[in-house]
């Protein structure tokens, strides 16, 4: 085997190990996962990761593509939505399309005009099943129940797009790519400002130094308050023996 091929495989292996540690961090605690109501499947995540590695070997932004593909598939996302602009890379789109096939879900890409749509389909060779043309408000109005969403921080409308998304009742994972510059500022990404009227809460957020930065948020299921469940003590008295038993419930 040529030396270059060996080096490339070793680099991929190291990337996989790094991403596995990211997955562990992204899963969160048991209580946090319960608030989301989504179920994590490491087997599906691994399958999507491997397939994306093969498809995106020669693409830019491949590290991001593999990670978001595994995340979307691992959380069993049924509706995956992304935004794309003319001139952008398509590796992430390929990864999300792979994830949708693994989960049997939908992968929808929102573009601004027909020219962008044509450019996008040519670059991805028609891989995504659905491409929606138009303003994010109009496009997202017809996409209720978003489980997984990817937006680009370099777009001026990324914050508006996140606010307009109609998230799944089971919770959702939101991803901002190219976030490294914004993360370095005091402003950062204010995830709580994107949540609707207090019916949802931010379960957790994390910044990963993958590609040009990924800022990721987990949003709770609809109606989740995030308040801890208080236990209570119940006293039971045996009428015959008079013995008291205290049970914590």
TrEMBL record:
<dbReference type="Pfam" id="PF07279">
    <property type="entry name" value="DUF1442"/>
</dbReference>
<dbReference type="InterPro" id="IPR009902">
    <property type="entry name" value="DUF1442"/>
</dbReference>
<dbReference type="InterPro" id="IPR029063">
    <property type="entry name" value="SAM-dependent_MTases_sf"/>
</dbReference>
<protein>
    <recommendedName>
        <fullName>S-adenosyl-L-methionine-dependent methyltransferase</fullName>
    </recommendedName>
</protein>
């Amino acid at each position: 085997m040529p030396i270059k091929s060996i080096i490339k495989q070793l680099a991929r292996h190291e990337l996989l190990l790094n991403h596995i540690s990211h997955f562990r961090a992204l899963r969160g605690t048991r209580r946090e996962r319960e608030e989301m109501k989504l179920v994590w499947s490491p087997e599906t995540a691994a399958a999507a990761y491997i397939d994306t590695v093969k498809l995106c070997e020669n693409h830019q932004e491949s590290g991001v593509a593999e990670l978001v593909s595994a995340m979307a598939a691992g959380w069993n996302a049924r509706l995956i939505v992304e935004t794309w602009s003319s001139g952008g890379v398509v590796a992430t789109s390929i990864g999300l399309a792979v994830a949708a096939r693994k989960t049997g879900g939908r992968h929808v890409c929102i573009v601004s005009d027909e020219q962008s749509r044509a450019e996008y389909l040519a670059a991805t060779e028609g891989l995504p099943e659905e491409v929606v043309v138009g303003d994010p408000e109009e496009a997202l109005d017809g996409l209720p129940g978003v489980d997984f969403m990817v937006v680009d921080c370099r777009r001026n409308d990324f914050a508006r797009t996140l606010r307009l998304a109609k998230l799944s009742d089971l919770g959702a994972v939101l991803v901002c790519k190219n976030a490294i510059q914004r993360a370095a500022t005091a402003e950062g990404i204010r995830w709580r400002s994107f949540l609707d009227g207090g019916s949802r809460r931010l379960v957790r957020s994390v910044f990963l130094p993958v590609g040009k930065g990924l800022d990721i948020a987990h949003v709770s299921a609809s109606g989740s308050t995030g308040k801890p469940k208080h236990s209570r003590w119940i006293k039971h008295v045996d009428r015959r023996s008079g013995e008291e038993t205290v049970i914590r419930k």
